[in-house]
């Protein structure tokens, strides 16, 4: 479980997140939605301890992210753009991360590795990979250590349709096992099958946190994209 409490994140005088209060429970799949620059990645980085928190707090399974870094072992993270040592091969990169995590082979989740058929490409250097293949390596690593929480930043951006489908099915499978999944995406149409809750952020503020079922009922729509358009129209009308 993740609880975001009165979180404000500033970069110098710019306020990227303003007084966020959110609660993400296990077994839920949450979509973080909002325009470019609204603060989605900033929030994810605060959860991961990659951004320093000065105001407010984030609790992961009851423990503040400010206390120590051990909680990160429970989180699998797929970044928007994965950065890896360019001269290492895919095989060496995966082995290096496996070695640092010290988890026995029998406890590793290699399902995505097999579905993406990455083993065939183990000798390729990370620096020479296509964007989509780098994304596949990031996805494999996010799920490999069977974490309780999985955070995916634009997971299907750059993936071909078949690979996107493989990843979506994996996300649904892990959610159904009771894991907490957080996804950011601009591709609203692909979220319908995957997410149970949405958090809509605009200019660093939470505009809506709602279950997909409630959202659909309230907005009288059958798709997340239609509901979001309705929220945006409402925001525009209120601003006029
Ligand atoms: N390290 C930083 N220093 C200064 N400003 C930053 C930093 N990181 C993020 N920002 C700013 O904070 C705001 C939120 O950025 P963030 O990357 O969280 O947006 P986002 O919602 O993930 O956008 P996108 O949909 O484009 O990925 C932006 O205005 C960005 O320029």
TrEMBL record:
Source domain of life: Bacteria
Gene3D superfamilies in alphabetical order: P-loop containing nucleotide triphosphate hydrolases
Pfam families referenced in this protein's UniProt entry, alphabetically: ABC_tran
Record flagged with keyword ATP-binding: yes
Domain ABC transporter, residue spans: 2-228
CDD domains: ABC_DR_subfamily_A
Keyword vocabulary terms for this entry: ATP-binding, Nucleotide-binding
Record-linked InterPro entries: AAA+_ATPase, ABC_transporter-like_ATP-bd, P-loop_NTPase
Keyword rRNA-binding belongs to the record: no
PANTHER family from the UniProt entry: ABC TRANSPORTER G FAMILY MEMBER 20 ISOFORM X1, ATP-BINDING CASSETTE, SUB-FAMILY H, MEMBER 1
Entry protein name: Cu-processing system ATP-binding protein
Species of provenance: Kaistella chaponensis
Biological classification of the source: Bacteria, Pseudomonadati, Bacteroidota, Flavobacteriia, Flavobacteriales
């Amino acid at each position: 479980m993740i609880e975001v409490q009165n979180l404000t994140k500033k970069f110098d005088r710019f306020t990227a997140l303003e007084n966020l209060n959110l609660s993400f429970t296990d077994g839920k799949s949450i979509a973080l939605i909002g325009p470019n620059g609204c603060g989605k990645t900033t929030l994810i980085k605060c959860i991961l301890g990659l951004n320093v928190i000065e105001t407010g707090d984030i609790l992961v399974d009851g423990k503040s992210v400010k206390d120590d870094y051990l909680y990160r072992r429970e989180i699998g993270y797929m970044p928007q753009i994965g950065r890896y040592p360019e001269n290492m091969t895919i095989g060496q990169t995966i082995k290096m991360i496996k070695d640092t995590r010290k988890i026995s082979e029998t406890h590793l989740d290699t399902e995505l590795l097999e579905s993406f058929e990455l083993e065939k490409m183990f000798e390729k250097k990370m620096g020479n990979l296509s964007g989509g293949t780098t994304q596949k390596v990031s996805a494999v690593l996010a799920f490999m250590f069977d974490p309780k929480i999985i955070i995916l930043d634009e997971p299907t951006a750059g993936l071909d349709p078949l690979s996107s489908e493989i990843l979506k099915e994996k996300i649904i499978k892990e959610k159904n096992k009771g894991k907490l999944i957080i996804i950011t995406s601009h591709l609203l149409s692909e979220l319908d099958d995957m997410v149970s809750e949405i958090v809509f952020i605009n200019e660093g503020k939470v505009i809506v946190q709602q279950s997909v079922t409630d959202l659909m009922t309230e907005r009288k729509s059958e798709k997340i994209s239609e509901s979001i358009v309705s929220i945006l129209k409402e925001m525009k009308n209120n601003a006029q």
